[in-house]
User: What shape does this take?
Amino acid sequence: MKKLLVIMVSLAFLTACEPKIDEFAASPNGVDFSTFVAVGNSLTAGYADGALYLSGQQSSIPNIMAAQFKYVGGGEFRQPLIGTEDGVGFQQIPGGIYCYPKMVMSIVSDKDCYGNPVGTASLKPALAFAPTDQDALKQQLFAPPTQVGPYNNMGVPGISLQQALIPGYGSSLGNPYYTRFATNPMATVIGDAAAQQPSFFMMWLGDNDALMSALAGTDAYLTPADTFAKYYPITVGALLQSGKSPKGVVATIPDVTSIPFFTTISQKLPYNGAVLTAGQADSLNMLYHLYGHPDIVWHAGQNPFVYVKTDGTWAQMTAGDLFLLTMPTDSIKCRGMGIADPVKLSPYPIPGKFVLDADEQAHIKSAVSSYNTVIKNVASANNLALADMNEYLTHFISGMVFDGVKMNTTFVTGGMFSTDGVHLNPRGCSVAANFMIQAINAQYGCTIPQADITKYPGLVFP
Amino acid sequence: MRKITVLLLSLCLAAPTLFGGGYQVHLHNMRNIGMGLIGTSLSYDASSLFYNPGGTPFLEKKWNFSGGVNFLMSRVTFQPVNGTEQAHLTHELNTPLYFYAAFKPTENLSVGLAINTPYGNGLSWGDTWQGRYLIQDISFKAFTFQPTVSYKFKNIIGIGVGLVYAYGDVNMNKAIPLQGANGDGKLNITGTTGNFGFNAGVMVHPVKGLSLGLDYRSKIEMKVEGGDATFTVPQSLSSSFPNNKVDVMLPLPANLDFGASYEFGKNKQWMVGLNLCYVFWDTYDSLVFNFQTTTSAVGRTAQPTLYMNKLVPRIGAQYRMNDMFTFRIGGYFDQSPVEDDYLNPQTPSLDQIGLTCGFSVFPAKGLSIDGSFLYITGKERSGTYSPDNFAGTYKNAVFIPGIGLTYSF
Assistant: This one.
């Protein structure tokens, strides 16, 4: 019996051979992917969680694309890697920059209005550590990349379309994220990219022409539509005429107002969240009258918060106005922001940099729409692949699913954005890379395999 | 000897796997497996308790026993639609068992007990593959215990009915797309359940040599109540994913089988037969998990499955060479009840063809050693599980030798 069993089992193993299915048939269809150069902003650079850090760069959209290009003749893809996993982000301050590490999901103890812990804790993004040692962070920011150039990934966080053409953008007076890897202080991003004579390029520029203004809570810094229309063809042209008649993919600019940075707080805090008694309303009306704003009228019940418009005037918020993720909600809860300061007994409008009102949103949307018309026209005139990221992002408002992973634009739980609410996490980047690949396959008739999105992590929770 | 016991025990505990008809398993008697799984019009041994209890009184001997085991090797390959990394089911040896005992207290009456595994599913894709958020591994099996009583009238018509008690257990693992320091989150569900159904059949011998059979096995609702759901998620999310009790409902579909067979030749040496088996798969329209402790992240989930009813034709033949040897051959075509939009790696169901052969050796009076061999080849199939947007191509091959004993006196 034992013998028989052994014979049966071994026979089974021998005979039941692996069923064969044809492997994925990858084909470049004549397109040369050997020298792939990507030009863009933070979304191209792999910036996430409010900083540039090593594993974020390794999960950058063009790096994921380059890994897939290997199946169709792609070559090496060098990135200006930063030597820190904690990352460096910065903001301009008078006389220089202020640096900080990336944010990570953290358990932060809740505090009352006097700063005392109340015994509970919340899960939210927080800096990986307190940025007390500014010198160390600056040193990491300006240290040469850990990989030598030339760099196939020319993505520079913060760059606008026009800045890609400006000599000196990589100088000590320019953008530190370019300074750290520019070939020389007077180099241009487009020049450094073109000098590599790409056989294939990706260009995703223009986001910051709208985003930088939106992030400041205003429509004042939008790149004018005709300026965009003038410089976009010049930028693409510089790559097209770099020597090897490259093919390429360009991408539209997403409507920035649908990203979590602008939607998250407004989902929890209504624009008319100032709840007053009749007595409080009367007092406020007197106070605002006293300060020369009789036009702002308070009632018993729910009232819209007051904020400062871009032109400096005050107004009550209206439905559809958005709070920015950076708004200190504690000030609303504890210090009367949006109503009146209970200590100073003065009106306390919300600073304009924390509100993107409906008019500003309309101007931004209109600008983005005109930029995208230019991008689509240039793509079609030059037979370039077009990844319509603006269109894709609209699908994520209600949500999409890939391999059982549900994703939407909700902050943290949506699974695609990083902790800064603006940039994608690695899994989000892999989805974006696949949209690029789909556009390339559609335009050039090639079959580039897509990235396995499950191989790239989403947010990491403690 | 102890080693063999351990080996046999572990083999018995492994779950049977057969992908053709969803999660139905067809390995119920070696002789029937040898001839294309037909059996509805046959009464050669005690397995008719299962195939058609109306046939049991036609058995010649007073006591009839049948038992056996199959050694089921299945392999599945998956090619993602746009990706480069093929996945293979890890190889498991599954061993569905059966045992039947029939006793005839009088010439026309028979009573009996059938024990077998008519439903089951067991597969393991591993915990790193692309579909791990749908399924990593699943083991589901349902044993049935069927006490049966049958009666025949004048050697022409037999009827029989059995009460079926099904005992099932399920154990499944899937990854959850929430990463912590140790990678993906995970969900394990285990549970057991039992419920009743029935098996009723009628067999007619209208003219010499011809036998007709009709058998209906009812649907059995298998509802796991209060199974254990264990979440492994990053600590900061654990309050949203409390370890939990879960209710899972999985129906075992009804079957209506018609069979016809004809014996001819010298001493009825030859038999040819066919079965038409209609499976009421449409009862399985979704797989529902109802978590008893609900949070914003955990509640009721329903995976749509939308199975469709299918007719499975089977044919088989038997040749009794002499008193020592009998040979069998057969085949069937098993259509997948799953639509292309709902092809799920949990049950990667393909249209498949089964080819069978078998033999019996009679070393002593009343005793036979029965062997069978079933080869199943699934047609390569591309589909998407659209609720999860998981797309690719599946192909399988299944190889099932089996050995059994039949004894009557």
User: Anything to note?
Assistant: The longest strand of chain B covers residues 157-180.
